[in-house]
Amino acid sequence: MITKKDTLAVVASRGAMHLRSLLGLAFMLLLAGCATRPVNPPITQTDTRAGYRFEARQPVIAGKNNDTLVILAFSGGGTRAASFSYGVLEFLRNTEISDGKGRTTRLLDHVNLITGVSGGSFTALAYGLYGEKLFDDYETRFLKRDVQGEILARTINPFNWPKLGSTGYGRSELASQLYDEILFGGATFGDLARAQGPMILATATDLSTGARFVFSQGYFDVICSDLGAVRLSRAAAASSAVPVVLSPITLNNYGGSCNMGLPEWTRPFLDSPEPPRPAARAVRTLKATAAYGDGVNRPYLHLVDGGVADNLGMRGVLDGLEIMQALSLSGRASRLDGVQRIVVFMVNSMSSPRTNWDESEQPPGSVPTMLKAAGTPIDATSYENVEQLKDMAAEWRKLRLIGKSAAMASNSDPAVAEALRVPDAEIYAIDVSFAALTDKAEFEYLKEQPTSFVLPAEAVDRLRAAAGKIILASPEFQRLLKDIGAEVVDDAPTTH
Predict the structure, then answer these.
(1) pTM of the full predicted structure?
(2) Tens-place pLDDT, residues 286-319
(3) Contact by Cβ (8 Å): 238, 311
(4) Is residue 374 classed exposed, middle or buried when 0-12, 13-18 and 19+ CB atoms within 10 A define those classes?
(5) Dihedral sign, Cα of residue 176, residue 178, residue 183, residue 188
(6) Environment class of residue 41 by beta-carbon count within 10 Å: exposed (0-12), middle (13-18) or buried (19+)?
(7) Nearest-angstrom CA–CA distance, 301 and 308
């Protein structure tokens, strides 16, 4: 027989269990609430010979091919972009060329520089870190994984709510932790510097000014910080932090505290009252970068998706080429003197899903309108960057032909000779975009894929396969193969 005393004892016992559970939960939440965002460490003195920067990696990069600079520009676009970019790496890995000395190498081995934005930054950073090992499990670890669902699950987990309420700690920090666990394994830019792969430049956007912010030691010199201690996962999180959907990634800015001096080659551009042509846009970028040095008035930088400033990752490439041309016009030396070929694969995974907005008198809602308003100018800028590189390639080629023509042989006017002075490098602008597909059904399928971090496995595979088809059919790629003495047969090149 259960007495009143027994009942009270049971109730008291259950109450004690609930209290212990609540106290345990409160303790865990308290611990979670103590979480703080990672802080990038300061430096007291810059060293242009060290750190993850182009100059410090010259021995690695120069060892690939002294006369050819191969650049891959990976656009934004979530898993769609990551998969399409990965397909480019796969194709280049399977494409062999002859160096003219009887040695056969793969096109991938000649890549010097990869720029990555948003989804493209994951593939770029992961390849820079793992090299050949990337091809073993990148599909399962990232491309064919519901990364978006996992980020959402962490966001709605009550255990993480105190973290999300901490100063400077937002959804992108949770995402960064996930990227570390599934892909980067805690690796930093110091680890990337020790790797033997190409230079990787992941790009984000400064939320305050809209300027590009590149994860290279050159930019971190300006904010007097050590990039080597920064995790690759935070760079990927910053580069893909879509405004509103994800929170900004915050960096500490110690600018002005490390005796940082601008490189000598920038002087002709920054000291001139009128920026030398055609480098006016590049000078604007240099000045925007120098402005980060005001750490007193700007102690923090908030970074969002790199696609807001440059969705194709081409702005830095174009700036470099414009500076190269401006230095050539003025008779000054540039870091790319001696380069005979500049090969740029513009890997643009821009999509354009159909809408039925024009079929209704009722306009779309606020969120679709906001996304369209943000995406349209980004797509237009990407198109302009592609066309600008093509125009630059044509201009350099035309001016070289005029300068070497018989009509110019007797020219004695130095002004004319100066106007015709351009770099000797031949530019190959290889446009790798969905629009180049001849299979219209495949084009329609790929351009309908959303910008998200989850796609069906079939879509991932079709994106990968499409990248190789587009490159192989590219007239510019075929021109490159002809100029270097190689041809592709059955998806594997044979040399003459």
Answers:
(1) 0.87
(2) 888 888 999 999 999 999 999 898 888 888 888 8
(3) no
(4) middle
(5) positive
(6) middle
(7) 16
